[in-house]
Write a structure and sequence with these properties.
The protein has 265 residues and is an alpha/beta fold. It has 2 domains: 6-234, TIM Barrel, CATH 3.20.20.60; 237-265, no CATH class. Helix content is 42%, strand content 14%. It is built from 11 helices and 8 strands. The protein has helices spanning 6-15, 27-35, 47-50, 62-74, 94-106, 122-130, 146-149, 158-175, 187-196, 217-220, 237-254, and strands at 19-23, 40-43, 80-84, 112-114, 135-140, 179-183, 200-204, 212-215. The protein binds 3-methyl-2-oxobutanoic acid and sodium ion. Residues 23, 42, 44-46, 84, 138, 181, 204, 214, 216 line the site of 3-methyl-2-oxobutanoic acid.
């Protein structure tokens, strides 16, 4: 086996094949998703919330995300591993972006990086691609900009908003990005951007007509207690895990665990 590459991603768009992406932050779940055939795993800065317990993605750092990225890379053989560049690690300059990306590629063994922002990030995208780092863009609702956006809300509404988002997507393509995440945008606009771009669009809250779809795995598996309207839970891990913890607790308190079967004589 070999890992999925940017060429495979481009070929999928040519053939009109849709594909799924999930986030991953640790060895066991990354291994499960890799075995399940998920072709691209994102070590998202959503780790700020689902791993580190912050209430936004802003506090997380390269140092926080690097070990998670390395864990996902070590425990997979097939998926392309995409590392999310965290807030403050790439906005200042193309040089800063390359420094952060190089750490994810060298120490994190990532295969690509993702960064938030449209036209204003074109110099960063160009510098990374020139240095050999595949870049996934991310526009629409960009959680690192929650304070300027004024909340987690749908983006690209109205003619002006739609044209701005389309221009951002086209500029990311021109700068050399291999893919772009469209988060929380009207389905019709996501379909139009997908049709007008030659690079792959990855939707989250962007309707059915993007080339790929991504979800945070804890949302996808029903572990997250609160989720956005666009999330579909394909399992109920919260209930399953809480039930297991309660059963374990009951058996420990009641003295029925461990029994002879789970003890050494
Ligand atoms: O950090 C993340 O999980 C993401 C995806 C939801 C696209 O950026
Ligand atoms: Na992210």
């Amino acid at each position: 086996t070999r890992r999925v590459t940017v060429r495979d991603i481009a070929a999928a768009k040519e053939r009109g094949e849709r594909w799924p992406m999930l986030t991953a932050y640790d060895a066991l779940t990354a291994g499960v998703f890799d075995e399940a055939g998920i072709p691209v795993l994102l070590v998202g800065d959503s780790a700020a919330m689902v791993v580190y317990g912050y209430d936004s993605t802003l506090p997380v750092t390269v140092d926080d995300l690097l070990p998670l990225t390395a864990a996902v890379a070590r425990s997979t053989t097939r998926a392309m591993v995409v590392a999310d560049l965290p807030f403050g690690a790439y906005q200042a300059s193309p040089e800063q972006a390359l420094e952060a990306a190089a750490r994810f590629m060298k120490d994190g063994h990532a295969n690509a990086v993702k960064l938030e922002g449209g036209r204003r990030m074109a110099p960063q995208v160009e510098a990374l691609v020139a240095a050999g780092v595949p870049v996934m863009g991310h526009i629409g609702l960009t959680p690192q900009s929650v304070n300027t956006l004024g909340g987690y809300r749908v983006q690209g509404r109205g003619d002006q908003g739609a044209e701005a988002l389309l221009a951002d997507a086209k500029e990311l393509e021109r700068a050399g990005a291999f893919s772009v995440v469209l988060e929380c945008v009207p389905a019709g606009l996501a379909a139009r951007i997908t049709a007008e771009l030659s690079i792959t669009t990855v939707g989250i809250g962007a309707g059915p007509d993007t080339d790929a779809q991504v979800l945070v795995w804890q949302d996808m598996a029903g572990l997250s207690p609160r989720v956005a309207k666009f999330v579909k839970a394909y399992a109920d891990l919260n209930t399953t895990l809480a039930g297991a913890a309660k059963s374990f607790a009951e058996e420990v308190v009641g003295g029925s665990f461990p029994d002879a079967e789970h003890s050494y004589s």
